[in-house]
Design brief:
The protein has helices at 2-17, 25-64, 72-115, 121-144, 148-168, 172-210. With 213 residues, the chain is mainly α. Helix 2 packs antiparallel against helix 3. It is rod-shaped. The chain starts with a helix and ends with a helix.
Length: 213
């Protein structure tokens, strides 16, 4: 950990120290670095919030279709509110995943271009090693996130159709009829969580590499 931190500190000093030589590109590179890092943190936050909200929504659906529910309207409203929040969380997460992809591509492409400007071979080699390592780690995030959109939309579609059905037949018999479908949606939730696991692991890997705790 100490050696890694020293390497990161040395590399940061090198970037700042060559600002004049690169004609201001180091400052621009730092801006891109901050935006890329912020984008990664947004994705990490969004994904974890989506996981929590998916569980909250699932529990409110379970409560709604539970036999003998004394207040169907109240339970339905709670479920609808939770579903709306999940919908919003998911859209934000998917949007930020795409933004992170764009910023990552621009950031590492420019980093590679700037690396060719170093005349000191040690600095050039260090820059290239770090760029390749971090680029590979960011690439893992996008590879891991490839399947979450379909899994999320499949789960959300089921939940919304259950909501639509119950809005037209919010009666004990209507709830009883839709209960098997609602119970089956838990399987879609597990598929979603499974698709998110590699993404969370990849994000944890980047955080461990970039941030000292």
């Amino acid at each position: 950990m100490k050696l890694r931190n020293q390497s990161l500190g040395f590399f940061t000093i090198l970037l700042l120290g060559t600002a004049a030589f690169l004609g201001g590109c180091a400052t621009t590179g730092m801006d891109r670095s901050v935006k890329t890092s912020n984008s990664m943190q947004e994705v990490d936050k969004d994904i974890r919030e989506m996981i929590v909200q998916s569980d909250v929504t699932a529990k409110s659906l379970d409560s709604l279709v539970k036999a003998g529910q004394p207040d169907l309207k109240k339970s339905f409203d709670t479920y609808s509110d939770n579903l709306a929040t999940l919908d919003s969380d998911g859209k934000r997460a998917l949007k930020h995943v795409e933004e992170m992809k764009t910023r990552k591509t621009e950031y590492f492409a420019e980093w590679e271009k700037q690396g060719d400007a170093y005349t000191n071979p040690q600095i050039r080699e260090l820059s290239e090693e770090r760029r390749i390592k971090l680029a590979e780690m960011y690439a893992q995030v996008h590879a891991a996130g490839g399947g979450i959109k379909n899994a999320y939309l499949a789960y959300l579609t089921d939940l919304k159709e259950i909501q639509t059905y119950l809005s037209n037949d919010l009666t004990p018999k209507g709830v009883e009829a839709i209960a098997p479908v609602a119970n089956k949606s838990s399987q879609d939730l597990e598929v979603l969580k499974t698709s998110l696991t590699p993404l969370v692991a990849a994000l944890d890997g980047i955080k461990a590499e970039l941030y000292v705790k």
